[in-house]
Amino acid sequence: MPMWQRLARTALLATALLTLGYSSTAMAQQDEQAAREQLDAIGQEIDAMAKRLSATDQARNSAQHELREVETELAQTHQRLDQLQAERRQLADETTQLRQHRERLEGERDAQYAALGQQLAALYRLGPTPQLKLLLNQSDPAELDRMQAYLNRLTQARQQRLTDIARLDTALVDTEQALAERQTRLDALADELEAQSALLARRTEERRSVVTTLDDRYESEADRLADLSQSREQAEQQLRAIQAELARLAEPTPTTHITRTQGDLPWPVQGSITASFQRRNGVHYNGIVIQASEGTAVTAVHSGRVVFADWMRGFGNLLIIDHGDQIMTLYAHLQQFSARPGQQVSRGDEIGRVGSSGGQASPSLYFEVRHSGEPINPQRWIARR
């Protein structure tokens, strides 16, 4: 085969391989984009499902409705305060870094000024017209070349120093402007934090008043237990509706192999159990109550997908995670949510904070495990202590 044919064949083969590689890469990118879009669509579908379910959960009297409104606003206020505190910490860190950067720039500029001073002193010692003096006083051409090169280097170095100083001056101006912007935002955050703290105090007092009104309705312990049973039955209807909605999802939650971790799951929050499985009347009959400090982080016991995060009568702020394999975990009485419906969470991720929503007298976490919609003993799933 002639050389030109071999070269042409090689070129065609290389082109084909490159095209194939490009096509494979493009297909992989398209597959990844399609998967991402599918996950987003599933998240939106779950979010819409949660909103539909929330809309059907109507309180049966004005006091319960008012409690829902107040506790929902309290959760939003807590979340906003956390966001403001986090932003303030970030701004404070950025301000510290900018000040350190400014100090470095000032030190570098001072060093440049000192070096420039030395260069100017060297030029001054050579007199006002060093080039002319070199021509008149030097008889050795080689020495003349060396002195001329020295003068050229001094001039270039001086110009570079001046350029560096100008650059540092500009950087210092930018840094000062950034510091001023951070300080302005910090001042605004301080005002908003104060306003949100005042709002939190008002909402807390409103909640206390509503809870007192609810407690005053009961003429006897039997009335209170009857109302708790009614709340539990209403919640059961809601949970069955959630289970049915999940079954209708186009993309159900894939298995997370949670069944392999039975007896090994971490506790969602550290604390003492004040109500055990099926050992107490009312809404806490199907799970356990773990007493913990207000605001303590609540974490997911296993990976899964958040399918509900809203207020529910008897449970207050309730978050539900679907782990696949028809297993769900429930976390109730939350102060606030740290995850939203449709969001994927991993074991140990914060999903909320311990609270007393739902009209509870003291902060605690209600934790429940369900298999195929039926409650099972959570203590058989979480690790022994």
Write the layout of secondary structure elements.
Layout lengths: L2 H54 L5 H64 L4 H8 L3 H76 L4 H28 L23 E4 L12 E4 L5 E3 L4 E9 L3 E7 L4 E11 L6 E2 L4 E5 L9 E8 L2 E3 L9
Antiparallel strand pairs: 1-2, 2-9, 3-8, 4-5, 4-7, 5-6, 6-8, 6-9, 9-10
Helix pairs in contact: 1-5, 2-4, 3-4
Explain this structure.
This protein has helices at about 5-55, 60-125, 130-135, 140-215, 220-250; strands at about 270-275, 290, 295-300, 305-310, 315-320, 325-335, 345, 350-355, 365-370, 375. Helix 1 (about 5-55) runs antiparallel to helix 5 and helix 2 runs antiparallel to helix 4. A hairpin with a 4-residue loop joins strand 5 and strand 6 (about 325-335). Strands 1, 2, 3, 4, 5, 6, 7, 8, 9 and 10 form a ten-stranded antiparallel β-sheet that branches. It has five helices and ten strands. The model is unreliable at about 1-10 and about 10-30 (pLDDT under 50). By secondary structure, it is α+β, with helices and mostly antiparallel strands.
Structural class: alpha+beta
Query: What pattern of helices and strands is seen along the backbone?
Result: HHHHHEEEEEEEEEE
Distance between the termini: 79 Å
Instruction: Give me the Rg, rounded.
Output: 35 Å
Main sheet makeup: 10 strands, antiparallel
Estimate the strand proportion.
Answer: 5-15%
Mean pLDDT: 76
Number of strands: 10
Number of helices: 5
Would you identify the regions where 5 or more consecutive residues have pLDDT less than 50?
1-8, 10-28
Report helical residue fraction.
55-70%
Shape: elongated
